[in-house]
Specification:
The chain has about 170 residues and is an alpha+beta fold. It has one domain: 2-Layer Sandwich (HIT family, subunit A). Helix content is about 30%, strand content about 15%. It has a five-stranded antiparallel sheet with strand order 1-2-3-5-4, with helices on both faces. Strand 1 and strand 2 form a beta hairpin. Helix 3 runs antiparallel to helix 4. About 20% of the residues are buried.
């Protein structure tokens, strides 16, 4: 079934999303800032270098990007990947660990630091993703694009990639 997507409104006036609060108050997580987007290291990283690209304009959904933002998003993804390779991630994560959001967050960050100390940052691939709506898993109502570096052997079977949100349909080759 195909439904037309209704554009979602910007966030309420005079509010600031959690991402903009982090950008303003906690430079430890900021990887880079630009005119249309900024990038944060994920405070609960699923893999080393897991990042969030976030529009400066507080909008909810991917389809709310204007044409100029769409073009800038590609450059933002490229900038994020480059910055991940050029940044002292162990130092950044160590700073983030000190201000940890939660014990679970600190556990994830500790795992990432250990991985980086043993292996360095040499991803074999990337997943790029958006949880666009509550039923898609979005927990923050400010659009953010996940950049998730992947490493050979980080999961038992990566076939199907993001299809693993439905585990029984993930590997369509079996």
């Amino acid at each position: 079934m195909c439904r037309s997507r209704v554009r979602t409104p910007s966030l309420a006036p005079n509010t600031m999303s959690i991402f903009n609060k982090i950008k303003k108050n906690s430079k430890q997580e900021v990887l880079w800032e630009g005119d249309m987007f900024f990038c944060l290291l994920d405070g609960s990283p699923v893999s080393p270098g897991a990042s969030l690209i976030i529009p400066n304009r507080e909008i909810k959904g991917l389809l709310d990007l204007n044409q100029q933002e769409w073009m800038e998003l590609k450059l933002s993804i490229e900038r994020t990947v480059k910055n991940l390779h050029d940044t002292d991630l162990i130092k950044k994560y160590s700073e983030m660990y000190e201000i940890g959001i939660s014990e679970k967050s600190k556990e994830y960050i500790k795992d990432v630091i250990e991985f980086l100390k043993e292996n360095g940052f040499k991803p074999d691939a990337y997943n790029y993703g958006v949880n666009d709506g509550k039923e898609a898993g979005r927990t923050v109502p400010h659009l953010h694009i996940h950049v998730i570096p992947r490493f050979k052997g980080d999961v038992k079977d990566s076939t199907g990639g993001i299809r693993h949100i439905f585990p029984n349909k993930a590997n369509y080759r079996k």
